[in-house]
Design goal:
It contains nine helices and eight strands. It is of the alpha/beta class and 235 residues long. Bound molecules: magnesium ion. The site of magnesium ion has 4 residues, from helix 1.
């Protein structure tokens, strides 16, 4: 089976796509055939004339960012096969638009990327307990896709709680965790928690805090080296 990571967040807007795109670009630059997959996206916009998708279709900005970062592998439409307009949990967005939400396609959509990639980066929607309809949650999808979790957390006040809750939810479901990345989606110079958050998270988590990414920053050296080690494990 192809190797990969399932990128989840401690909240929405923590920078899952930003971090995943940095990882995709790093892998692609190393000559790795990197696949990118976003099982479902909501909050999509209608394609305009300069979009890679036909005008009038729904575009996921996340899918486009991942696809571009990975070097435009395969077809963009396959990066995120289920796209909805309303900024809601995907099954609720589908309902609001009178569209079907295909829970099988959430899983089988990965096959396309598994067949043509050395390493696949999957970006979940929302966090681990984002509902997917019925009793199902994003954590169930992560379990079925089978990749270890990479948890993206926001380095700001509240992140210790959010991160520990996410780790606890993953451990309770026996989902393997590759590690945590602290990201800075918006700079907060007046937030005194940012300096101490890494040490507190390390003190309370058994999984590794892999590194920190500054606002708009590149992948730090230790994260690049970590990713290359994971990539080389696949060969
Ligand atoms: Mg995203």
């Amino acid at each position: 089976m192809v190797r990969g990571l399932f990128i989840t967040g401690t909240d929405t807007e923590v920078g899952k796509t930003y971090v995943a795109a940095l990882l995709a670009a790093e892998l692609a630059a190393a000559g790795c055939r990197v696949g990118v997959y976003k099982p479902a996206a909501s909050g999509c916009t209608v394609a305009s004339g300069n979009s890679p998708l036909p005008p009038g279709t729904l575009v996921s900005d996340d899918a486009v960012a991942l696809w571009e970062a990975a070097g435009r592998p395969g077809e963009l439409d396959r990066v995120c096969p289920q796209r909805f307009a309303a900024p809601l949990a995907p099954h609720l967005a589908a309902q609001a638009e009178g569209k079907a939400f295909d829970v099988d396609l959430l899983r089988t959509g990965l096959d396309y990327w598994a067949a043509r990639s050395d390493f696949v980066l999957v970006e979940g929607a929302g966090g681990l307990l984002c509902p997917l309809g019925g009793r199902e949650m994003m954590a169930d999808l992560a379990a079925d896709l089978g990749f270890p979790l990479l948890i993206v957390a926001r380095n700001a006040l509240g992140t210790i709680n959010h991160t520990l809750l996410t780790v606890e939810a993953a451990e309770r479901r026996r989902l393997p965790i590759a590690g945590i990345i602290l990201n800075t989606p918006s700079p907060r110079p007046d937030d005194p928690s940012t300096a101490g958050n890494p040490a507190e998270i390390r003190a309370h988590c058994s999984c590794p805090l892999l590194g920190e990414i500054a606002h708009g920053g590149q992948l730090p050296g230790q994260l690049s080296r970590w990713l290359q080690r994971r990539r080389l494990e696949t060969t």
